[in-house]
Amino acid sequence: MRRNGREPVEERGASATFKRTRRLRRSAALRGLVRETALTAGDFIYPMFVVEGERVRNPIGSMPGQFQHSVDQLGAEVDELRSLGIPGVLLFGIPAVKDAAASGAYDDEGIVQRAVREIKRHDPAMLVITDVCACEYTDHGHCGVLGDGEVDNDRTLPLLARTAVSLAAAGADVVAPSDMMDGRVGTIRAALDAAGFSVVPILSYAAKYASAFYGPFREAVASAPAFGDRRSHQMDPGNVREAMTEIAIDLEEGADFVIIKPALAYLDVIRVARERFDVPIFAYNVSGEYAMVKAAAERGWIDERRVTLETLIAIKRAGAGRLITYHAKDAARWLAEERAMAHTLTAASATHD
């Protein structure tokens, strides 16, 4: 029978041959009900750059919204993070003087050591993770002591161990070696234990790739190599199986959890690691990944909020339990707004009923 001059639409009922998956996507409430991965501010660790001086808050040109802070400014930063529900920070230091031996890294009165003490004085419950590497402290910008024009792996290990002990003594909750030297986790574990810091865990940058996405970070800490690059010790971007080997070695040497860096360009590595290792896995959403989103958003090419949250949930969905990200503050605010909006809608619906 024709209806309104049109052919009748075939009625589809229980005999339909396709599955109606869209039923669970019809509304925000339904989408939230079946969402498999969710972000919270508690997922984030916020990286911070600390410099000498007083009342310093220097903007980082290639990382809009990020700053170098002097130690006296850290209390206000920590208060903001606490109000947003962000549980921890990862500290990087920029010393006033750099030298070939990276002596500022293991100076008990060094910039990061003082930063740790100030944060812990201001908010003892704030989780403080400290980067352990030499690149910010050497006058040549490489990740260890040089020998014959390249990084000397074995001569660098005692330097890293001394740095980790100094940071633990300052009050760091976690030390995070990022240098990618062979044997550094075992050397640091032995040094921490010998110094009475057996309870301090090691968060190892176990799979750190030789990536072009680090450029803005090197501006932030003035750590670009004076010559050459870091491909002799950071991982080749083409390798996944090697990353699993690196993670296994670090765990065997005493790492308690691991970082994969960068995050967005290495989601497959995060996924394989999550499936293979039963330890907490962190992913570092690095400076170049952050800067690209900011640059595109400034030009109006993308919706910064949606792209940022989509990026972060993709990293978590791949298997990262915690995300080290410069987006942390903005993302925490946006997530809070979404929760408030959902609460308002729920309350309105209940009132209507």
Number of self-contained structural domains = 1
| CATH topology category name | TIM Barrel
Output mean pLDDT.
89
Number of strands: 12
Alpha carbon gyration radius: 24 Å
Q: Helix fraction?
A: 25-40%
Strand content: 15-25%
Low-confidence stretches: none
Helices and strands: which structural class? Answer: alpha/beta
Number of helices: 11
Give the SSE string. Answer: HEEEHEHEEEHEHEHHEHEHHEH
Identify the overall geometry. Answer: globular
Q: According to CATH, what is the class?
A: Alpha Beta
Largest sheet: 10 strands, mixed
How would you describe this protein?
The protein is of the alpha/beta class and 353 residues long. The protein has a single domain, classed as TIM Barrel, CATH 3.20.20.70. Helix content is 40%, strand content 16%. It contains eleven helices and twelve strands. The strands form two sheets. Strands 1, 2, 3, 4, 5, 8, 9, 10, 11 and 12 form a ten-stranded mixed β-sheet that branches. A two-stranded antiparallel ribbon has the order 6-7. A hairpin with a 2-residue loop joins β6 (146-147) and β7 (150-151). α3 (111-122) packs parallel to α4 and α4 crosses α5. The longest helix has 25 residues, at 328-352. The protein is globular. It starts with 27 loop residues before the first helix and ends with a helix. The mean pLDDT is 89.
